[in-house]
Specification:
This protein is an alpha/beta fold. Helices cover 36% and strands 34% of the residues. A hairpin with a 7-residue loop joins strand 1 and strand 2. The longest helix is centred in the last third of the chain and has 16 residues.
Length: 157
């Protein structure tokens, strides 16, 4: 099954302020019916990079069977980590980079575990450029940031 995960994170520009993530999964079942699942959650005292990672993780963890997945994100940090093999380097160096310990190790490890059964491709899209699903994810993330510690899982058929 092919699945597309669109992600967005919103930290409101302040690591001590509200942050939120939004994830949208699009997939087609065996009968050819398109399904959509939307997730959002709000957190406090976090960063935009952590929100983007959570958005990808939640999407991958929602999949119950191995899938061919394309993750579309407006985060260069997330997409470059995979496309430029940063993670491979971090693993070889024991999760240490040139500037010291790699940030967000807990989430990177969780993401690696979540993507394990799947074939995953990461695609970067410029944020806030009118990409419809990316804009929907941004609205989910912003609503979660504004709403505090909310978790929403909307299943649509």
């Amino acid at each position: 099954m092919k699945v597309t995960i669109y992600t967005d994170g919103s930290a409101r520009g302040n690591p001590d302020g509200p942050g939120g993530y939004g994830t949208i999964l699009h997939y087609t079942d065996r009968e050819g019916t398109l399904h959509t699942r939307e997730y959002s959650a709000g957190y406090r005292k976090t960063t935009n990079n952590r929100m983007e990672l959570m958005a990808v993780i939640i999407g991958l963890e929602a999949l119950t069977k191995p899938c061919e997945v394309e993750v579309i994100s407006d985060s260069r940090y997330v997409t470059d980590a995979f496309n430029k093999n940063w993670i491979t380097g971090w693993l070889k160096k024991g999760w240490k980079g040139s500037a010291g310990p790699v940030k967000n190790i807990d989430l990177w490890k969780r993401l690696l575990a979540a993507k394990e059964p799947h074939t995953v491709k990461f695609t970067w899209v410029k944020g806030h450029n009118g990409h419809p699903e990316n804009e929907r994810c941004d609205k989910l993330a912003t609503a979660a940031a504004d709403g505090g510690n909310l978790l929403t899982d909307i299943y649509q058929v």
